[in-house]
Structures are given as structure tokens and as C-alpha cells.
Amino acid sequence: MGLNASLADVAREAGVSQQTVSRVANDTGQVSQATRAKVRAAMHKVGYRPNYAAKALRRGTFQTIGVAMFDITATGNIGLLDGIAEAASRQGYAVTIRILGDEDRTLARVEKSMARLPVDGIIVVMERLLTDLDTFSRRLNTPMTIITPAAVRSCSTLDADQAQGTRLAVDYLHSNGHAAIAFVPGPEDSVASQTRLHAYEQQMGALGLAPLVQDHGDWTANSGYRIGTALARQVRDGGVTAVLAANDNMANGIWQAFARAGLRIPQDVSLIGVDNSLSESIPNLRLDSLDQHFTEIGRQAVDLTLRAARAQQRTGRPPRPEHRLVPMDLVRRGSVGPMPRR
């Protein structure tokens, strides 16, 4: 019978009423274990598939979380998805992913795009700057959690503490005697990079040091190599003694450019990256890096989203939004040393 099998087909095969089959299919009512086993065996034999949409309407939940992101391959997103999928599965939920396009550059557009999906909650991975972050107000009843370092008025938000991590790196370099600390930012439309850049400038100012902001990279090692080639001249001239790159890929490119210029790390110049993403792809990695704990952020995003969904089901109104920041940790591997003597 396959896809066309009905409750009546199952009832005939199992020798029970359609009402009993419905109770088993929907996990409602009192049905003995023996009868339940007989009905499920009949379902399997005739190829019956429950109507999950109808079931969702009856119980008020789809048991699914929607995830919206611009680039599934972006550094950290695989870790985020790993944490989201693990936490969702543990609570009996599936995950539906929607890849956003360039036209979805506002939270209002993202919400509209996700509104078509049968989901109980939405997690938005906001790699790019969305123009209505400060003005967005939810129109859907579906709870939304946004992975971004900034608080949003009508949604819960969560991210690594980009400012705290940046301050940690700058302070560590300064504690090693460095004053000429350069910063290599990522793309201008990256929320994380802009947050790190602002925190770097603030912390340099707090230490009485002049910020040395370089050209924007594009997160790739090639852009880091290009910027590193220009930075090597500043290192040779004594204008830069340490570099903080906004991600590990660019830091790796900078390292290669320094090596080609004959500069040693950390003897001639110190270097720190952000995201701790290269340990499984580069053997004998020696790069110090800020760990953002992507998997943990994914887990917490599910927690925030499902707690909001359940609270809304109980009370009929959305709960007060939360804002969480997960502290970064500095992983030390030996790419930072004392300020070199000239």
C-alpha cells in the first residue's frame, strides 16, 4: 500500500478500531503495550506514514528548529551547527537549515523567509551586518534567537564575547612588553570583525597606545598573506612588534608572508589569531588563538530558543529576551614572545 496507506488499512491489518490506531499514532489515550506493538507492526507492514503536519497542529509543535545563515562553510558555522544539532536531537527536535541570499540583509527579511517553514523556533547566525538590527520588531509568534554580540530589543541574542576576547589578546601582548600592536580586521560587513576592531581600539586607548589598524582582509589566508607582506616592512622598521589578526586563516597567511620575508615568530614578531580553527588542518600548529567555543554557543542557542517557545506556549505571550555572551579563552601555543630588542 505504501504512501497511500490509511488509518483504516492499519486498523484492518491489526484487527482494532481506527480510534485505537489514532491513539497509537498520536501517543494519546490508554492503549496496552501488546495492542500498541500490534498496531505498530501493522503500520510497518502496510507502509503507513503518520501525517506529521496534522499531528503538529494537534499538539501545537512541529518538533523542529529552523536555522538561518548566509554561509554554511564560514569559519565556525560547522561548529555552531554541530552544537545546534546535538542539543536539538537531545530534546527530540529536528533541524531545518535555510541559506540566506544577498536580498536577506535585514532581520525583517530573514523573519519573512523563515515564516514559510514549519518550525517551533528560529536561530539566526548573523555573520553579516543586518541594517535593521536596532529597529527590528518581531511580527511572528515564533521565538527567534540571533547569534550576534549585540543585544536586540525583541529577540534573545547570544555570541562569543568578542570584546572580552579582544581585550584578553591585547593585554596578553602588552604584558609581554609589546606597545606597537597592529590589528588586521576582517570584512567591513562582518559584525564580529567590527566588534573586535572597536574593542581593539578601545583597549589600545585604555593602555595609552596608538591603534595600528591595517587593511581589511576577507577572512582568507590569501588576504592575510597580502596584508602580511605589507606588515613585514613595518616589522623590519620597528613600527610593529606584534599582530592580532581577526581570524586564524588570515593569521596563517600573515605568518607565511613573514616567513617569506625572513621574519621569525615569535623572535622577531608576535602573532595571535581568533577562532582556534586550524588545529585539525595544520600539523604542529604553533599559533596562539582565541577560542570562541562555537559548539557551546550552538547548544546555548537551542536552549534559549526552546525555553522561549515553551514559555510562550504556557503563557500565550513571548518571554522577555535574554542576552548572553560566552567568554573566549586564549589558547597559547608559542607564537607570542617578549618584545624583540632592536
Short description:
By secondary structure, the protein is an alpha/beta fold. The chain has helices spanning 7-14, 18-26, 33-46, 52-59, 77-90, 107-114, 162-175, 191-206, 221-236, 248-260, 294-315, and strands at 64-69, 94-99, 121-125, 144-147, 156-160, 181-184, 212-213, 242-245, 270-274, 288-291, 323-326, 329-331.
Fold blueprint:
Blueprint: H1 7-14, H2 18-26, H3 33-46, H4 52-59, E1 64-69, H5 77-90, E2 94-99, H6 107-114, E3 121-125, E4 144-147, E5 156-160, H7 162-175, E6 181-184, H8 191-206, E7 212-213, H9 221-236, E8 242-245, H10 248-260, E9 270-274, E10 288-291, H11 294-315, E11 323-326, E12 329-331
Helix pairs in contact: 1-2, 1-3, 5-11, 7-8, 9-10
Detailed description of the structure:
The chain has 342 residues and is an alpha/beta fold. It folds into three domains: 2-50, 434 Repressor (Amino-terminal Domain); 64-160 and 294-326, Response regulator (Rossmann fold), CATH 3.40.50; 162-291, Rossmann fold (3-Layer(aba) Sandwich), CATH 3.40.50. Helix content is 42%, strand content 15%. It has eleven helices and twelve strands. The chain has helices at residues 7-14, 18-26, 33-46, 52-59, 77-90, 107-114, 162-175, 191-206, 221-236, 248-260, 294-315; strands at residues 64-69, 94-99, 121-125, 144-147, 156-160, 181-184, 212-213, 242-245, 270-274, 288-291, 323-326, 329-331. The strands form two sheets. The chain has a six-stranded parallel β-sheet with strand order 2-1-3-4-5-11, covered by helices on one side. Strands 7-6-8-9-10-12 form a six-stranded mixed β-sheet, with helices on both faces. Strand 8 (242-245), helix 10 and strand 9 form a beta-alpha-beta unit. Helix 1 (7-14) packs across helix 2 (18-26), helix 7 crosses helix 8 and helix 9 crosses helix 10 (248-260). The longest helix is centred in the C-terminal third of the chain and has 22 residues, at 294-315. It is elongated.
